[in-house]
Amino acid sequence: MANLNWPNDLLEWYSYNKRSMPWRDNPLPYYVWVSEVMLQQTQVDTVIPYFERFITKFPNLELLANADLQDVLKMWEGLGYYARARNFHKAVGIVIQELHGKIPDNFDDLRQLPGLGDYTAAAVASIAYGQKIPVVDGNVLRVFARFWGIKQDIKTNSVKTKIFNRLKTVIKPVESSDFNQSLMELGALICRPKHPLCPQCPIQNECIAFEKGITDKLPNVKRKAKVPTYQYGACVIWHGDKFLISKRENDVMLGGLWEFPGGRLDGKHNLQKQSYELVKSVTNFEFQILKNSYKIKHTYSHFKIELIAFKCELVDTESSPTRMIKHCNDLRWITFSEVINYPFDKATLKVIDQVARE
Ligand code: SF4
User: 176: CA distance to ligand 1 center in Å?
Assistant: First the structure.
């Protein structure tokens, strides 16, 4: 590496420009871990209120390990990528039961815990414990594809390895916690995905993309395939002042969250009939569809859904409300005031919002 002035320039910029964040202002290993799990795929501004609520509810590892997963998911409601919460809860249980309550202080041991990939393990090891290991996520790849003028696709393993290995050398003489956080901060505030703020950049004078005037050409990222849209149907079945919700199994997408019974439709035939037959087959309840329906759209990471939920009423009032159903490990009849007791995914919350406004 020809010139290594830039790490110090970056660190100096960071010391004046770093944003206050609860886990940054008080970097206890538990706080750093919570924040790094929440920050995957999620912006800092979105995470801060979630982090604060989470730490208020589960101020330490023991309380989190002993909490019911449903309560953990409720704290995560709306944040998405719920496998993060399930794995985190499992990992904290292992720390309490098998590691005497001590969060591992190094990358290799952190990496053994459920849900901790290379990035999160490196972030916790470096930020909480000062281990000299670089963090390489999408932001860091973008910054260094520009800074080092790397033209290959940044999603490839060879580019990730190249950047990781170069940063491993760079991080050796510097304070690793601040260095890694300064990279994250530079990616978030200055070297943004679109329209990087090069005139304000502390490492501009060594940046190849800036020098060559190709900051808008890098990084090279293969275009994502267009995400498909699927049609989903559900039934909001009323019984007096209560409606029926079902819990998804733990090991599927949105696992452990609650929803209105329903599922994916073929998108071609009578949506009402298909939804009715689908819900009838899994609940075995006798119910009829009423006039109203609720339509929402929602985007997940790899697909979009259009969900139509039909307002229904129970006909077979002799049915046991606690009856188990296929593919779901629980059912509940709840009133509106009980919605706050259950974790729902965002699409279901949108339907609940429409039902509430009727
Ligand atoms: S000079 Fe511009 S492109 Fe280069 S690292 Fe700084 S913000 Fe990114």
Answer: 21
